[in-house]
Amino acid sequence: MSFAGNHPDDAEWESGWGLHSDTDHLYDQMSPAQGGDVQELVPLSNRQTTGYTTRWENDATSAVEHEVISPQDQATTPTATWLPYSLRWQYLSGIIAFGFILEIIVVALHAVSSRDSGLVNDNGSGGIVVSSKFLPTALAVIYVLFLSILLDDIKRTEAFARLASPTGALAENSLTWTADAWWDAISGGFPTRSRKASWHMLCAAIVFMLGFLVVSPLSSTLIVSQDVVFTQDTQFARLDINSSLPLQANPLSATYFRSISNILRNVTTSAWLDDTYAILPVWPSSIGHAPLGPILSNDIQTWTAETTVFNTELECENLEFKSVGTTKLSSQFLANSTELGISVDLSSPSGCTINLRLENITAFASSGGAIWSTMDNTTAAFGGFGAYRSGITTTACAQDELAIFTTPLTNETYLLSNFTITGAACQAVYYVGNTMATVTLKDGESLVEIDPQQYLNARTPVVNHAVNMSAFNEVFFNLNWTVHVDAQKLSGGNVDGRFASGPANLLSALYNFSPEQLVADKSVTKNMQRIKQRFLGELFRDTFDSDSDQTPISVPGSVVTSVRRLVVVPAVAITLEVVMTLQLILLLVTFIYTRPKNRPLGLSADPAPAINLAKLIANEDGTLRRFVTLYEMTSKDLELELSHDRYQLTDGGIRLLSSTEGSTAAKKHHITPAKARRAARPKKILKFWALVVLLFILISLLVTIAVLYWYNNAYGLYQSAFVYAIDVSVRGIDLGLVSPASIITTLIAVCLALWWDSIDTTLRSIQPFLALAKEPVIGSKGVSVSYRSSYLLWAAFRAVKRSHWILVSVCTGAFLVEIFTVAMSSLWTRGPGTVSSTFQAARQLQLRHVPLTATGDLPQTPSSRDYRVGAISALFNNMRTSWIYGAAVQLSLNGPESTWSSGGWNFVPSDLSSIPRQKLQTIGNESAVLDVSVNVTLETQAIRGGLECTPYEFPTDTSAWLTEWDLTDGDYWNLTASPNIINHGYELGKRNDSFAKLPLPSVNEGRSGFNGDYTFFYVDETRLQCCQNITNGEIGQGSVGYWSFNRPPNGTYTDWPVNFTVKWIHGRPVQGYQTHGPAPSDDLPLHLIWAEKPQMTTLNCMPTVETANASVTVDAEDGRVIEFHLLDTPRADDFAWTDDFTIFQSEAALANESTYYDANLTISHGVLFVTGLLNAADVDNFGGTAITYSGGISRTLENIEDQTFNIRDPGLNVDLMTYSMLSLVNNDHSALLDPKTLESTAQKTFATLFQHFVNGNLSLSSGGYAYQSPNERLPDGFGDPREGAAYTRPPDPPPLSQTITLSISWPVELLWMSAPAAWICMLIIGYLVVTSLAVAIASREYNQMLPQQINSIADMAVLVAGSDKLLAMARERHVKSIKYDPGSTAKLGWFLSDYGIARWGIELTDKEFRPDSLLEHDIGNNLEQESKTHGQAARQGMVSGIVRILPWYRKWRG
Fold first, then answer.
1. What is the CB neighbour count within 10 angstroms for residue 606?
2. Which contiguous run of DSSP H or E holds residue 1089?
3. How far apart are CA 1452 and CA 802, in angstroms?
4. CA 571 to centroid of chain Cα atoms
5. Do 216 and 605 form a contact (C-beta atoms < 8 A)?
6. Which helix or strand (DSSP H or E) is residue 636 part of?
7. How do residues 1118-1149 score in pLDDT, each as one tens digit?
8. What is the 3-state secondary structure (H, E, C) of 124-147?
9. Of 328, 403, 323, 334, nearest in space to 358 by CA
10. SS3 34
11. At residue 1080, does pLDDT exceed 60?
12. Does the CA dihedral 258-259-261-265 come out positive or negative?
């Protein structure tokens, strides 16, 4: 196709000039691309300043002589083997190797995590966070960055690869082809009619797409922290109790105490015992000792091993009431004497018949109660002192146990009609068997379980060689249960109390000693079985303790440990493995297809610099002629104009192979004024509104992160949209939870990074042209420089050297965006937390300032009981809520802490039943439900009890409190009845004193009215008679410990609080020594003698009660205190000691004091607590603290038949307070001899007792011992204080607000925001906002400096095609010699070519061309001169060019 052609003249005259635009004829006489002559074209000027010549001059007619070029400056044709760094085999192999290593790492981590149930333990350290969150995403970001560089280099060299093909390429597929985005690369990789497929580019684009869409987002959730379990086979030790079998029933006081505590308080005394089984302890051999307590280990583990299990079952059938009548009862004392009693018949469905014969006045008949005995023990006690025989007769009963429960049958005179009586006949069966036991240790608890079915299959009935059944039944059904829990005494005394016989005392305590509740419960036999199993288990516990030092039996077992570990999420790992494998395959394809032999580029240097591209076209006349007239076209115009041209890159140049006809092109691009104006419209290289949108998005993202960060810290992110997790499973295989939050944030970061990368790529591409457009610059800053192959900080560093500050900011931002992606991926952590809201509730209780009230019998006589005993006894009636038992259980058996109490403090409770319940979130397959604790925080009043103690220092002379005895003195001692163990010993108390008093040291002189002059060794004056510790005739160590009041000389206190003494006496006691006397030996007092002088440590303690205001957080379900802090300084409770059983009398009582009447009493809570506490160990002998009468003490020895609040075991005689203290030192008797240890344990015990006292008998409506309702007052008609009573009360406190603000915390799954990651993200976004603003401002100038985009080869070619001097330099000089040569100074702008054409482009220059100045000032002279010199055509071409570009230029200049 010929380029020559005749173009018709343009008939249109340019506005106001009258000049014909004849530029289209300027190159009409050029030769074709292949051969042909060139008509002479003479430049407008023949200046020789640059020394460069044009290839368009005819050698024969040229008026310009060539400058001589030195050999070292002459350009050579290097080998066309250049490749971008990313396509060189070293780099590309490195990318493939890096991807392969990442693939191996993911596979290895996945395999190790699956095999080892995780990677490493999560200890919460910074290294764990970095390795699980930052590192995977950082590696993924680096990997994707490498892929983006690879794709970028493939895209920018793809046009050259197509040009270098043997047949060349159409311009639309090469010179004008661009692939700005990855989707352009994908679409450009597929084959079309005009081009072949570019598989390498398609593969690279897909690899990059998978990288930023899959690899980067999922990398943030690859490794998570989870609780995992490990199973390890190990050797176990099993307790060997064979030497103690058959089990002998020798229960201690501690045995009863543990049994009662479990039944009444539901306390776990040993993890190996429960309501159904007694399990032989088995434990990992590594522990070393037998764990027997309620908590076996503090580790979070699960043990599994085979062991032996014992249990008992009651097979019962109900006894139904059949008839009632009268019967004759024989006298117990007089022969042939009878009394009319009642007869009750009961029978079972199997035919067992029970006949019950009762005297009317027996406690069982008159008060109701319970009997539980063996079937053959038909002489069970029925209470009272009846003279006639009551009894039970059984007929046809195969069972061996009998239980009868009844409401009152008589009123002691006649039979009642509304009674209810029922019972059960039971057969006890005992079993033993070996089975697997599982021990679960977690949250401070130990739970031992067995497989019930496996045990049922393995168990066999117990034979006597394992358990001495007769001994067990004898002990279990013994009437001595009343020693430890006396139903009749605790429910009202011998007159009004409900009767119970044997273990029925404990059973009735479960029902608050109410026969009505007993007979109404249809499942009472289940509680009977529970009691029997527990007592059997506690007997085994005693055996466990005694045999714990035996060599255990070795058995196999396994330990399952729960550990917080870093775990690879299978769903994420599998996805990454598949995707990265696909990426590796595509990268291998890319590697093969991008080798030079498969994809030659035909380049000897990077084509990005302008001088290098000029070199590619400098020697190609056809290409130059094709482009020289196209400088005014936009990129789209160029694409249309050149679409059917074919070019080829060969011999270091881009050669035009074929083109459309010139005439068609000329017509198509004929310039009209309107077209000139459109051409003058700048093409946006940086779209201002796109930058504004980016700025808006960045600011929105910054605000969003900041708000979420604030909300996270203030309230927590618990909404379902944040915490929802997807549980991935395939065919029932759980592949783990995937959190969309992390994926979404990472994806946002990746998208932002891609957007910023587009800005970075654009600026790196145009920065050299911006520099050229701004001012003439040397080659190293202009035509010889390019940032296309420089990235991130390297590009920023290069830009700093050239003072391209906007580019520096953008490239730095590109680097920070990569960090931003890593930080965004580490922004979230999903875990448990709470969310709070407030709720107003009515105040129901406050601290007590109105004293407690009671009644007492007055006037008091020496023979009457203390008027205060009713109020004191009421403190102990309910064993299930007994505050003394509760505190002792907590301290000695690791029982639960009292509700609404912690750290020694009690907090005034509030009714939490009305707080709203709601479901706050859905977190996927694991929906949040309110079956876990809801916490409530409120401000309330607090109260605590404490002790201020100082040790006594007794003189070395012990004669004042210790008597030395000669035990061989037969005149005083009954040597026959006394033990023959020691000959000499010591007794607590003075010889001639009937009671055992302990005089207090004289250090207390001057304070006797407060501290007292003496106290007692026991609770009161009675002498001790228990307990020795003798084994095989050897005297063992023994201890005594009681708390007792300090007594003033006159026995009356006028001021509270009253001090008391805490004692611990330790030595070698022997009991049972008797003196001579008139009574039979069995009725004489028994003396406790110490083989040596005992050691004694005592403390003088003053009780205190303090109050404060506090903020407390409690569990809404059970009132357990989670945490608290005081809001002010604790202060003394002014109302704790004001009323010491103050007597109030009504007018009627004052009229006649000679008769008995019920006086009203007021009691302060502190007084009631201390009085009850120090008399609990001997409440039957209660004397109180104000003994204003003589006598009243009916005995001189301690009552060992009452052990309700005592522990009497071999070598130990203590009240429950001291027993608790001993438990706190692990039963080390010697430890309590240390005054500091004794003081610390006493203080903790007292505080715990006060906590349980405050919560005892508590009602949320009416209050309790230390709380009251806000409107509580003394009852009307209560009376006035009795005359002479000292009564002074402080003023009432100011009223409290009627409402309380409850802050409710619901347990939820929270999305925690990492503070470091959040701050990194916000700082980086802040930087990007500033940089975006700078780019947006600069974009207006940039768009004016570069009127059109420079994306393709054609865009650059039109800039240099008419630059004669630049082309000449490119032809004749090596690029390296040009870079720093001052002669390479060039400018991008308007210039006149050597042929007088005003054009836009890059040209070597020392003076800027100003077309407006030329046009306005010199056009006349220039036109005349040029017309004379070069003719009309040149003149018209120059004028036409000026006219066309003038509007464009003016707009460009602003």
1. 18
2. strand 1086-1090
3. 24
4. 24
5. no
6. helix 635-642
7. 888 999 999 999 999 989 999 888 888 765 55
8. CCHHHHHHHHHHHHHHHHHHHHHH
9. 328
10. coil
11. no
12. positive
Give me the DSSP letters along 45-91: ----SS----TTS-TTT-SSPPPPPPTTTB-----S----GGGSHHH
Rounded Cα–Cα distance for residues 883 and 906 (Å):
14
Q: C-alpha distances in angstroms, 1280 versus 867, 1144, 1160, 1272? A: 18, 5, 9, 18
> 3-class SS at 1102?
strand
Locate 72 and state its tokens: 């070292």
User: How buried is 930 (Cβ within 10 angstroms: 0-12 exposed, 13-18 middle, 19+ buried)?
Assistant: middle
Predicted confidence at residue 77, as pLDDT, reads: 52
Does residue 1385 contact residue 720 with C-beta atoms inside 8 Å?
A: no
Nearest to 841 by CA among 1125, 1123, 1110, 1116: 1116
Contact 380, 371 (CB under 8 A): yes
Using CA atoms, how far apart are residues 442 and 592, in angstroms rounded to an integer? 59
Q: What is the largest CA-CA distance in the chain?
A: 173
First to last CA, the chain: 43
DSSP label at residue 1022:
S
| Residue whose tokens read 């929802």 | 724
Burial track 202-226 (b if 16+ CB lie within 10 A, e otherwise):
bbbbbbbbbbbbbbbbbbbbbbbbb
Give the integer Cα–Cα distance in Å for 255 and 274.
15
- Residues 1405-1433: b if buried by 16+ CB within 10 A, e if exposed: beeebebeebbeeebeebbeebeeebeeb
Q: Report residue 15 as tokens.
A: 């506005």
- Specify the long-range contacts of residues 321-329, CB closer than 8 Å, at least 24 apart: 321/345, 321/346, 321/420, 321/421, 321/422, 322/346, 322/347, 322/353, 324/409, 324/415, 326/415, 327/357, 329/357, 329/359, 329/388, 329/389, 329/390
Q: Specify which of 858-862, 1002-1006, 1260-1264 reaches the highest per-range mean pLDDT.
A: 1260-1264
Query: Tokens 């301290």 belong to which residue?
Result: 891
The sign of the torsion formed by the CA atoms of 421, 427, 428, 429 equals: negative
Residue 753 CA to residue 765 CA, distance in Å, equals 18
pLDDT tens for each residue of 820-863: 887 887 787 776 777 778 888 899 999 999 999 988 877 655 55
By CB atoms closer than 10 A (0-12, 13-18, 19+), residue 985 is buried
* pTM given for the model: 0.70
Q: How far is CA 1434 from CA 920, 962, 1320, 1332, in A?
A: 84, 141, 63, 47
H, E, C per residue of 672-687 = CHHHHHHHHCCCCCCC
Burial string for 765-788 (b: 16+ CB within 10 Å, else e) reads bbbbbbbbbeebbbbebbbbbbbb
Q: What confidence score (pLDDT) does residue 10 get?
A: 35
Count the neighbouring beta carbons within 10 Å of the beta carbon of residue 173: 22
Strands (E), 905-1013: 905-907, 935-951, 962-966, 984-988, 997-999
CA nearest 1439: which of 13, 145, 95? 13
1380 C-beta neighbours (distance < 10 Å), count: 12
**Residue 657 is which amino acid?**
L
Between the CA of residue 219 and those of 701, 702, 709, 815, 1324, what are the distances in Å? 22, 23, 23, 19, 21
Look at residue 1236 and give its three-state secondary structure.
helix
Cα 908 from chain centroid (whole Å): 29
> 1344-1376: string of b/e by CB count within 10 Å (b at 16+)?
ebbbbbbbbbbbbbbbbbbbbbbbbbbbbbbbe
Residue partners of 1416: CB distance under 8 A and separation at least 6:
none
Residue 227 in contact with residue 562, Cβ under 8 Å?
A: yes
- Label residue 324 exposed, middle or buried (CB < 10 Å: 0-12, 13-18, 19+): middle
3 state DSSP class of 986: strand
Find where tokens 């998005």 sit: 697
pLDDT tens digit string along 414-437? Answer: 888 889 999 999 999 999 999 999
